[in-house]
Amino acid sequence: MNYKIIFLSLITTIFLINFVLAITNINPDVAYPETEIELSISPNKKFGFYNIIYVHDSEDLVVDLINIPCDTVCKSRQNIAYSIPTNFLGNYYFATYDYEIEDYELDSFSVIEQGGAEGGTLTIQEIKNSGSDINFLISPEQGQKANIEILTTLKSKSCENYNVKTYLCEPDLFTTCSSEIYTYNIPLNFISKTGQTCNFNYIGADYFPFYEVPGDWKIISQSGATYDETNFIYAELKAMNYPSSINFGTLNANMWNTGIPAEGIDLINHGNIPLTIDWQCNGFSCISPGCTDFWSINDGEENTFQIDDENLFAEETETGLNPVFIIDTPNNFFPETGLPICISDSCDDNIGEKTKTYYNLKLPEIERGTYQGDIVVSLY
Questions:
Q1: 135 and 224: one domain?
Q2: CATH number of the domain that 178 lies in?
Q3: Which of 189, 211, 234 corresponds to the end of one domain?
Q4: N or C: which end of the chain has fewer CB within 10 A?
Q5: Strand locations in 32-89, DSSP E?
Q6: Is residue 116 part of a domain?
Q7: Are 264 and 370 in the same domain?
């Protein structure tokens, strides 16, 4: 007899604990806009619940109300079909006031976009340059977009029917990166399925132009209620667009030949960090038959090889950049801040990432002929 009394009391206690903590059941807790969530509310008939249920978003703002067709305090079981509004997307919760505990019961649910997975496991497998063996590293391409690969796996029933997106965030957005705040939004393509695991990928060069900010980036992959994130590196690139050979044409001796070539040469920062540039030359040798001269650019009396941003020879600044004489030791043509990076494919943004350069030359008394030599340009 005593054993039966103890056993019945234990059952009653467990039943009351569950009854107090959860008067509302919802199904499903992950749904799409314009579908329904079923709410089953079973209050303690002595106390009941408030007949208005509040719907809150993830910022705790009230975004909707559910009016229950009963008196202010509902004391009987209620089944409600709640229609999710078209504009709902993200995390929400129902707040139901339970008079027995004199507080709100909060029941969470998520609204995902059509085509998103309702459950399962999403994993970012790769983000790298196409064909590279180094994962989670993107190296930019000089003057163009990087060719990259992204691969994720989704383990879920009917996974081939879902959409997967990735969101890439530059360093300035690293801490706030989300499906609402990002640098790039890249949809992934379904490519294969093994069992209940599907592979989704992107391969191409539609993103990551050469001027993107280097450093630690974040990648988020998402499909409905499934989510994964990790970090990767976008590497630094020191690069510029400049011809590998220059034809000075016919020059006059014993006078300054200014603006060679006459139209100037575009010097463009085709990398993603500012550039400091050193120029160096030892002189030019005569390569045509019949001459043996060597044109030294510094004969001890006068420097004869100047580079500048305009075609007016002078030894002082005229239009912004300091002209320098190119001699047999390196000379820096730019200020300490260097040549800024481009912010567009055209590198024509009026921020100083493109500039004309001119060679101002003065030939000494040398034999007529064709002269050739090296001008070494170093990037820092």
A1: yes
A2: 2.60.40.1930
A3: 234
A4: N
A5: 36-41, 49-50, 52-57, 62-67, 73-74, 78-83
A6: no
A7: yes
CA distance 151 to 142: 24
For the beta carbon of residue 250, count every other beta carbon within 10 angstroms. Answer: 6
Which segments of the chain does DSSP mark as H helices, in order? 2-21
Is there a single domain that holds both residue 246 and residue 366? Answer: yes
Report pLDDT digits (tens) over 252-279: 888 899 999 999 999 999 999 999 999 9
Residues 244, 222 share a domain: no
First to last CA, the chain: 91
135 assigned to some structural domain: yes
Determine phi and psi for 199, rounding to 5 degrees. Answer: -105, 135
Cβ(375)–Cβ(272) below 8 Å: no
Cβ atoms of 116 and 162 closer than 8 Å: yes
Name the domain count of the chain.
Answer: 3
**How does DSSP assign 181-217, residue by residue?**
S-SEEEEPEEEEEETTEEEEEEEESSS--TTSPPEEE
Contact 196, 121 (CB under 8 A): no
- Residue 28, domain extent: 2-111
pLDDT exceeds cutoff 80 at 9: no
Whether residues 46 and 174 share a domain: the answer is: no
Q: Write down the pLDDT at residue 334.
A: 82
Tell me, what's the pLDDT at 314?
Answer: 84
| pLDDT level of residue 14 (50, 70, 90 thresholds) | very low
Residues 265 and 354 in one domain: yes
- Could you say which of 219, 234, 249 is where a domain stops? 234
- Does residue 326 surpass a pLDDT of 70? yes
Q: How far apart are CA 116 and CA 165, in angstroms?
A: 9
Token representation of residue 78: 């209620």
Q: Do residue 372 and residue 261 come from a single domain?
A: yes
pLDDT at 290: 85
Does 369 reside within a domain? yes
Instruction: Please give the average per-residue pLDDT across 98-113, as a whole number.
Output: 94
Residue 21 in this model has a pLDDT that exceeds 60: no
Between 116-130, 188-202, 345-359, the lowest mean confidence (pLDDT) is in: 345-359
CB under 8 Å to 292, separation ≥6 — which residues? 286, 367
Cα–Cα distance, 339 to 357 (Å, whole number) = 13
pTM over 0.85: no
Two tokens at 378?
A: 């170093």
Query: Average per-residue pLDDT in the chain?
Result: 90
